[in-house]
Design brief:
- Helix 3 crosses helix 4.
- The chain has about 200 residues and is of the alpha/beta class.
- The longest helix has 14 residues.
- The chain has a single domain, classed as Maf protein (Alpha-Beta Complex), CATH 3.90.950.
- Strand 3 and strand 4 form a beta hairpin.
- The chain starts with a strand and ends in a 7-residue tail after the last helix.
- Strands 1, 2, 3, 4, 5, 6 and 7 form a 7-stranded mixed β-sheet that branches.
- Nucleoside triphosphate pyrophosphatase that hydrolyzes 7-methyl-GTP (m(7)GTP). May have a dual role in cell division arrest and in preventing the incorporation of modified nucleotides into cellular nucleic acids.
């Protein structure tokens, strides 16, 4: 099958995850408003934003397979998005210390050949160890996780913040669940093992 695979993201972390499948693809950054809608659950929000990211590229790449994803963390009832500042990162990590944070990842794939949508919601849990203020500031200074939901990079030094992790696919934590994506791609007719 001949296809164009587009990742609707400028994230180098998601790009590195998708590289694992060995399929040719390119990235295009969608321009969307990522604000939450009124009375929207975290699950509804990440699925909606994943679909909006892919939808934003349909006119530019109409006959392509477009992958959109979005991720948010939650600590009890509190949503943990991207901190954007060191101070906000400290607040998030201080609150996460000794706690379990659940990451919700929405995946939306648009099949431009057959004009069909495929969506999945994946979760992954991170159990933080008890962190000192010095450890938190040291981590923020060394890794600058300001554009990462939850204020850490699990694929880097952030792994030292945890006691354990739980979930079906560790790639979900980076924001692109490969097991779910592989299943969707096979349904569309793209198999990383034979293509």
């Amino acid at each position: 099958m001949s296809y164009n695979l587009v990742l609707a993201s400028s994230s180098p972390f998601r790009q590195a995850v998708l590289d694992k499948l060995g399929l040719p693809f390119f990235c295009a950054a969608p321009d969307i408003d990522e604000s939450a809608a009124p009375r929207e659950s975290i699950e509804e929000q990440v699925l909606r934003l994943a679909r909006e990211k892919a939808s934003a590229l349909i006119d530019r790449y109409p006959d392509s397979i477009i992958i959109g994803c979005d991720q948010l963390g939650s600590l009890a009832e509190r949503i943990l998005g991207k901190p954007h500042t060191p101070e906000q990162a400290f607040i998030q990590l201080r609150a996460s210390s000794g706690q379990c944070v659940t990451f919700h990842t929405g995946l939306a794939v648009y099949d431009g050949v057959n004009h069909q949508w495929h969506q999945r919601l994946e979760t992954y849990q991170v159990f933080f160890r008890e962190l000192t203020d010095d450890e938190i500031w040291g981590y923020i200074h060394k890794e600058q996780p300001l554009q990462c939901a939850g204020s850490f990079k699990s694929e880097g030094l952030g792994i030292t913040l945890f006691e354990r992790m739980a979930g079906d696919d560790p790639n979900t934590l980076v924001g692109l669940p490969l097991i779910a994506l592989s299943a969707i791609l096979r349904k569309i007719g793209i198999n990383p093992l034979t293509d």
